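Budget justification aside, the reviewers requested a transparent look at the raw inputs and outputs of the sequence design task funded under Objective 1. We therefore reproduce one unedited record. The lines immediately below are the structure tokens for a 480-residue chain.
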């Protein structure tokens, strides 16, 4: 079986303890590779070399840093097919999706920050004739980047790219559930000539390797994307050490559909925002609120189109949904469908595990599922499921739907569907979410602040926000 290795000091090496974990293909349910079960000794190794590499890398010119990052981006593009196949095999997502989103976005992330750093500037504040202040921004040091499994390479590079561009050296931990493309990425970093120790990738469990990164006294900042519970645990460890934290956490996003919307667009986009990537996107709209006059019409159309979606072999481009990422997550989603039934929900379509043929009979597939008849405040409508499961709920007034939308502990994203511009802006201002899409979903400009409110996170990624995160501002005041 293929053995994934840690990437430390520019080399691919075995974990100190020589222990490995199984890595599964979700479509077949079979282990197909091994990943290092790293611990604090591996993290210590990585920190030592990252510390040693920091003085040089942080003083390497922006242009030089940019150049090597651009080279890595080019290598991602050159290895497009291989990376897309690896992402689909490791994650279970359809290969067309990995080709359309994951891999192009990974090279785009590298290019975006490779060029963004060239335009990054800091502020100056003039006090008329008495003094002038200018702000220096220095790379913060050795930083930790911890990423989740839903967009493995895409979210991994979304953190690493601004950290490297800023001049930080990095200890990165991809999730143990989908480690393969991060491993292939480390090979590309070697090929691109990224200096030794600048980026170090330590594979392994969150509770072991991840926790060792978070609690390490020499790591000055943690950029984390993952579940809200894990985020709280990280904050508990990191806060007394005064580490800088960026936390991108879970969501339970509302899709609000008014009767005056462009109906066809609202249905089509809501299908995508419900079931893309098997509903395993933090930005998926899992609670669909529909204004009463069009509730029945929307429901009929939405359910008919959901039923037509095919689930199965991730390599077959006619399948809209592939496999659920892990057995544990598969069971969690099914348990939420059971909970919805217990809470009085009516399953309008889906609701079952699927076995799409002999080859995939042990894989973890679930039908896209639509549920109605639940109260806005029941557990199914309050807790993150993170799978192909959505609820439909009618509403009558703006006040009522605002109450529903803002009722969860989360506040990541929301969509609003209406042709009434004034209402759209009024709603956007009142919804408690970090990202609002009006008459669209997942339209992404990488320059914009990205992140959530309330239990969906602390801080923002994207654009210059991430470069600010990885740098320490120092104000210098000069008396005139
Ligand atoms: P998770 O919290 O289980 O794991 C995320 C990462 O943290 C993994 O690398 C894991 O190994 C590591 N980890 C786990 N415990 C740790 C600990 N104690 N200390 C340090 N690291 C630890 O999340 P997941 O299941 O991989 O991802 C799904 C979650 O991520 C969902 O809640 C989803 O909404 C969220 N997510 C959020 C965004 C966003 O931008 N807000 C984007 C994608 C996913």
């Amino acid at each position: 079986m293929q053995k994934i290795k840690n990437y430390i000091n520019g080399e691919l090496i075995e974990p100190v303890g020589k222990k490995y974990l199984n890595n599964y293909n979700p479509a077949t349910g079979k282990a197909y590779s091994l990943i290092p079960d790293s611990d604090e000794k591996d993290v210590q190794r990585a920190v030592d070399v990252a510390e040693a590499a920091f003085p040089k890398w942080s003083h390497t010119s922006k242009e030089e840093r940019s150049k090597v990052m651009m080279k890595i981006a080019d290598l991602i593009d050159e290895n497009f097919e291989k990376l897309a196949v690896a992402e689909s095999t490791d994650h279970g997502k359809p290969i067309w999706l990995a080709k359309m989103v994951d891999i192009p976005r990974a090279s785009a992330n590298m290019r975006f920050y490779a060029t963004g750093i060239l335009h990054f500037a800091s502020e100056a504040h003039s006090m008329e004739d008495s003094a002038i202040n200018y702000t220096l921004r220095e790379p913060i040091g050795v930083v930790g980047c911890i990423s989740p499994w839903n967009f493995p390479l895409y979210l991994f590079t979304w953190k690493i790219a601004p950290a490297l561009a800023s001049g930080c050296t990095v200890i990165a931990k991809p999730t143990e559930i989908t480690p393969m493309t991060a491993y292939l990425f480390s090979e590309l970093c070697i090929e691109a000539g990224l200096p030794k120790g600048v980026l170090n990738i330590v594979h392994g469990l969150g509770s072991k390797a991840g926790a060792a990164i978070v609690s390490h006294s020499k790591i000055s900042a943690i950029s984390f994307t993952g579940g809200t519970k894990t985020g709280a645990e990280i904050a508990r460890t990191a806060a007394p050490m005064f580490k800088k934290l960026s936390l991108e956490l879970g969501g339970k996003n509302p899709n609000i559909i008014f009767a005056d919307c462009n109906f066809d667009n609202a249905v089509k986009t809501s299908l995508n925002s419900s079931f893309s990537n098997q509903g395993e996107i933090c930005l998926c709209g899992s609670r669909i609120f529909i204004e009463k006059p069009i509730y029945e019409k929307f429901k009929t159309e939405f359910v008919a189109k959901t039923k037509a979606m095919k689930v199965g072999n991730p390599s077959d481009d006619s399948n809209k949904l592939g496999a659920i990422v892990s057995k544990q997550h598969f069971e969690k989603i099914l348990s939420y469908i059971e909970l919805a039934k217990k809470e009085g929900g009516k399953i309008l379509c889906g609701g079952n595990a699927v076995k799409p043929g002999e080859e995939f009979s042990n894989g973890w597939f679930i039908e896209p599922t639509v549920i109605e008849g639940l109260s806005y405040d029941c557990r199914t409508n309050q807790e993150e499921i993170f799978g192909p499961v959505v609820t439909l709920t009618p509403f009558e007034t703006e006040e009522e739907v605002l109450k529903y939308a803002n009722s969860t502990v989360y506040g990541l994203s929301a969509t609003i569907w209406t042709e009434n511009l004034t209402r759209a802006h009024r709603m956007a201002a009142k919804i408690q979410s970090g990202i609002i899409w009006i008459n669209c979903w997942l339209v992404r400009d990488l320059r914009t602040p990205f992140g959530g409110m309330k239990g969906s996170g602390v801080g923002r990624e994207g654009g210059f926000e991430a470069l600010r995160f990885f740098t320490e501002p120092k104000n210098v005041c000069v008396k005139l």
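The chain has two domains: 2-249+456-479, 254-449. The mean pLDDT is 98. Computational costs for records of this kind are itemized in the attached budget.
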